[in-house]
What we know:
The complex is a heterodimer. By secondary structure, chain A is of the alpha/beta class. Chain A is built from 14 helices and nine strands. Chain B is an alpha+beta fold. Chain B has one domain (3-223). In chain B, 31% of the residues lie in helices and 25% in strands. In chain B, the strands form two sheets. Chain B has a five-stranded mixed beta sheet. Chain B has a five-stranded mixed beta sheet with strand order 6-8-7-10-9, with helices on both faces. Chain B starts with a helix and ends in a 9-residue tail after the last strand.
Amino acid sequence: MTAYPDELVVAPVTITPTKPLTPTHLKGLLWTDVLVKASRQRISTRLVWNPRMAHLTTQTTAFWRHLDVAEPETDWSRESEAAIGLRYVAFHQGRPAMTARELDPYFERVESRAWIHPASRRLLELWRAQMAHLHVTDPGLTTARPLASDAGTALALLHERRLLVDHRRFGGPVLVDGTRWGLPVRQLIGADGHANYLLPILRELLPAIRPGRRFLLVHDNGLHADYLLLDRVLTVFGASVARLALSRVQVAGKAQSSKLGGWGGVTLGDLAATPGSADVAAYRLGMRLYFVGLLDRVSAQDFRLDLLRRCVGRAARILAQEPGEFKPGTVPDHPGGYADPHRLTVSLLGRRVRGLPPELREIFL
Amino acid sequence: MTDFQELLVAGALARVEAVGDQAGGGFGASVVVEDYTPQQLVPGVVAFVQALSEPDAGTWTRAFTRTAFLAGNPSSLAGRFPSALRSADGKLAWYGPGPDGERRTMSRMLRTFEGPGPVPWCGAPPIVVRLPGAATGVQVRAEIATDGVSAAAYLVHVHHAFAEAALRGLVGPGDTVRIEHHGELAGRRHHALLDPMVAHGVQPRISQDTRDPSRLRLYAMLTSKCRRGHPC
Lengths: 365, 232
C-alpha cells in the first residue's frame, strides 16, 4: 500500500523555448500529464512550471542575444518552429563569442518583467496550440509570475545550512556543497556572476516546502547527478522529495540533446501533421499509449513511427468500445506516492480491447 | 634582460639546484579552501609543515612543495577524508603530502579553487600574525606583490613561500609574522635580498610574470633571522 502525501507538487524540468518539441520532450510532457491527471483522482496534485526557470539561463539568453545581433530585423511572429530551431542548432555549432556582460540585460529583463524574446514567444505560441491539440494541460508556458523567492533569499537559506562554497569575494563562483553525501561540488553561480538552471529551481521550491507536501522532480536521466543533489538539498530544509528520471528517446540511434539537431520529421508539429484517418481523440490516446505505455522509464528504444501509428490504431479501437467499468485499483500506485502513469497506460495495451471508463477518459483524452 | 631579471633567473635556478636531480613527481599536498585570509593561511601552512615526518618533508621539498588548491568545505569532507590539519577557523584543510593517488577520490569531488579577482585585503595595512607556540622573539617579514595578482595566484605564491620557508626553518611556531602588501616587489631592497650571499636568510617566491610570460617576477619575499638549531 503506497503512502500518499497530503499534497503532490510535480516539478518537471522546464523546456527552453529555443527549438521544436522533440520525442524526448514529448515523453516528459505526456508522462507528466498522465501522472498529474491520474494522481489528482487520489490527492491534491499541482504542477509547478515557471518559464523563468528556463529563461534565466545562459543557454537561453545567449541564444536570444545571438538572434538580436545576427538578425535584428527578423519578424519572428511569422517564422516556423523548424526555422527557429535550426538557428538554435547553428548557434551551438558556431558558438559565437559572447561576454557575460552582454547577457546581463537579458537576465535583468526576464527577472524584472518576465520578458521573453519574440522568437521564443513564437515557439511558445506554437507549442501551446500543439499541446492543446494533444490535450496536454498548459503548465503555464508564458505565465509572468515571478519565482517564489529572489536569488539573495535562496542563497542566504543555503548559506545558513552551510550548503554553499561561496568564492564571490575572490571573484570566483558559488558552488553547492554535496560532499557530505558523497556528491561532487556543483557550480550554482559562475565567476561571471550568472547562475545556472539549478538556482531558479531552488528559488521556486525552497519557499514552497510544507509538511505533508511532496515534491516529485521529473527529469531527463542525463541530469541524474544534479537532481540527486537537489533532492538532498531540499530534504535538508524538511522537504519530502521523490524523483522520476526518464530516459531520452533516441532518434535514428542517437539520444542526443535537441541543440544538436536530428529532430527533423519527428517534432510534435510533424507528428500532429502526419496524415491518417484517426480523429483527435484517437491521436490523443494513441500518443499516450506510445510515449507513456510503450516507452518505459528507462527505454533505450529508437523512436518508431510505425509503433506510434499502431498505438493510434489501437486507441481508435478502444474508443469504438462502449465505456468500460472503472474498478477500484485501476490506477496503480507508485511507491513514490503518486499514480504510476506507465503501469496505468500499459493496462490499456492488454490482449483484449476494453472500452475506457469515464474516469480514464478524463486522464487520457 | 635587466639586472633584476638576471637575479630572478639565478634565484629560480638556485631553487631547482637545491632540489637536485631527484625531483618528486606525482607527490603533493592538497588544500581545501572554503574561505581564506592571511591570518588563517599562514599559521596553517607553517603548522602543516611542522607536523611532517622527515621523509615526507624531504619528498615534498623535492616536489617543490607541489600543492593543489581545491574549492570545498572542510567540515563536510571531514567524515570521509580526514585532513592532516585544519586552520583555526576550520575553513582551510590540509591533506597529504603523499602520492597523488591518495587524494584522487577527494579531488574528483571538488573543483580547483577559482579566484580571478584581487584579494579583498589588497591595500590594507600590514597584517601581524603571531604563530601558535612558545614565543621565539623571531620576527619574520613577508612582502607580497599584489598588482595584477589574482586571489587564486596569491594563495599559490604565499603558500609556496611559507611552506618552503618553514621547511628550511626560516619560520616556525612562536614567531611573529608581519605581512605587507605591495604592488610590486622590485625595489633596491629586493635587489639586495636576491644577492646569493644573503640567500640563506631569505625565502623568495619567483615565478613567471603572468602579465609578460617571457619574464620572471618576485611575488613574495620572506626575511627572517636564522633560527637556533637550524644551521643556515
